[in-house]
Amino acid sequence: MPDLIAIENARLQDELRDHIGRLQEANRQLVISSVNARELAEQLHAAQAEMVHLAHHDHLTTLPNRRQFTKQLADRIAHAGAHGCKLALLFIDLDRFKVVNDSLGHGVGDLLLQAVAQRLAASVRGTDAVCREGGDEFVAMLADVAHAEDVSARVAHIHHLLTAPYTIAQHVLHIGASIGISIYPDDVADLEALMRSADIAMYSVKEHGRNSFAFFEPPMDVRAMARHHMEVSLRNALERHEFVLYYQAQVNLASNRTAGAEALIRWHHPTKGLLLPKAFIGIAEECGIIKQIDRWVLREACLQAKSWQDAGYALETISVNISGQEFESADFLQTVFSTLNQSGLPPQSLELELTEGTLMRDSAATIEKLETLRAAGIRIAIDDFGTGYSSLGYLRRFPIDTLKIDQTFVADIHPGSDDVLVDTVISIGNRLRHHVVAEGIETVEQLDFLREHACDTGQGFHLSPPLPAAEFAQALAGNR
Ligand code: C2E
Ligand code: MG
Ligand code: MG
After folding, report:
1. 119-137 pLDDT, tens per residue?
2. What digits encode the pLDDT tens for the residues 365-417?
3. Considering only CA atoms, which of 262, 93, 261, 242 is closest in space to residue 178?
């Protein structure tokens, strides 16, 4: 009997332990799930806060974004209107930011934008507001302006702060800023017009040499309209066959013979006459039409060169300028190959001129493209060499054939000068076994200097200006 009782007791105890164990487990789960629920609620809360922040701020710089800024500006305008005071709106665009981004990489570019944002935010007062408009553009509002004249000193101070050198990832960067200013209510009476006027004033600073600031003036509006008209007529120019190519000789300095030609675009504008690239290439790049223009130039130049070769002229190469946008197009290689096919020009007769900035943008993809082009026999030149952020390291990495020394270096060669810079560039080119072309030769002294320093090829007004096709053919005839 006692045994049975003992057994029953033990069973009950086991059951009880089991029960307690289950209870404890259930309790533990309960605690865990309540902890989980709390964590979840906290996470949700943080995510919501983050979303609210993201909706009102620029993720890169954490400055208020345009939406948030516009709200602040509207409030301030209403306040200024009610109290009869003024406010100033600043449109700020960094100068040549793209060069930094392209040559040092987006990482450095992003850090620079963050540093600029910090300085900008620190340069204004509590009642003011700043925002990142996008890219390398910032906007600032200076509230409580008593006189428009006071703004000048404050903007000069902001400009000074923004353009002091930056040290980023071991690079010391000097960046300029162009600032356009509009004043409410002096210039305009509403928010949109205030923004537009500051933007127009900023463009005017860019046009007049950058890295400065200017107040909006009504004549600027007229110029902005003119620019708009230019854009519209540019869009029609291709269909209306208003573009024409001029050809400038590239002369072999040892033999004095024309070895090649560079195709340079001109625009027969319906009302303005013959326009040089600097009057329209910039606008064409901004509105994206440059790609179509480049394709037209490539086709026209290849057809022309082929017809000269067929006519028996000794023209070895035709050089064509390619914009960064066109080079980066997904179908660029295809465009080049089909153009060569259709024109029948041998690939060895085509040289593509790319600037340092274009090459630096995405070096892995660039090298691959260049290798494909060169494998097909097409030549690659670096145009305006020495004006970008080129390093000798990158020169070695890119598969190229030709270095074109920028004209600014050639212009520095004076009678009796011992120009080390040009000399060095020629030596580097020769050592890397690149073909070296000097651009912008205007005097006999420059020509002699380059010849003495073993520069292969020369191009410039002293040798020949760019000529229409028929005149260039005449000059070539003497070269046959
Ligand atoms: P670039 O490729 O460096 O072309 C050389 C420029 O120097 C040409 O100006 C030429 O007329 C000018 N030049 C030649 N010899 C001399 C000289 O002795 N002294 C001086 N001061 N200048 C000289 P252009 O034709 O006005 O072209 C300017 C730039 O426009 C070109 O610079 C090139 O970057 C761009 N460009 C021209 N045609 C095209 C094109 O078809 N497509 C693209 N994307 N860009 C083009
Ligand atoms: Mg060129
Ligand atoms: Mg050049």
Report:
1. 999 999 988 999 999 899 9
2. 899 999 999 999 999 999 988 777 666 777 788 899 999 999 988 998 887 77
3. 93
CATH of the domain at 76: 3.30.70.270
What's the 479 CA to ligand 2 centre distance in angstroms?
Answer: 22
Residue 167: pLDDT over 80: yes
Please report which helix (H) or strand (E) contains residue 321, including its range.
strand 317-321
Q: Closest residue (by CA) to atom 13 of ligand 1?
A: 440
Neighbours of ion ligand 3 (CB under 5 A): 383-384, 439
Rounded to two decimals, what is the model's pTM? 0.67
Nearest-CA residue for ligand 1 atom 22 is: 440
| Owner of token pair 């902890």 | 35
Range of the domain at 332: 230-477
Examine the domain organization and report whether 311 and 205 are in the same domain: no
Testing ligand 1's pocket by substitution, the residue of 243, 262, 264 carrying the most ligand atoms inside 8 A of its CB is 264
- Which has the higher per-residue pLDDT, 129 or 31? 129
263-266-268-273 Cα dihedral, nearest 10 degrees:
-140
DSSP, collapsed to helix, strand or coil, labels residue 216 as coil
The verdict on residue 177 lying in a domain is: yes
